[in-house]
Amino acid sequence: MGTWRTAKDPSVYGLLEIDMKAVLELLPEYEKKHNIKVTASHLVGKAIAFCMSKRPEINGMIRGSKLYLRENITAFYQVNVPGAKDEIGGATLSGATIEKMELKTVGEIAKELNSKARRVKEDQDDDISKNMRIFKYLPWWLCSTYLNISSWLVYGLNINLKFLGIPKDPFGSVMITNVGSLGIDIGFAPLCPYTRVPLILLVGSIQKMPWIVDDEIQVRPILKVGVTFDHRFIDGIHASQMARDFKKCFSHPEQYLLND
Question: Residue 188 half-sphere exposure, CB side, CA atoms within 13 Å?
Answer without folding.
Answer: 10
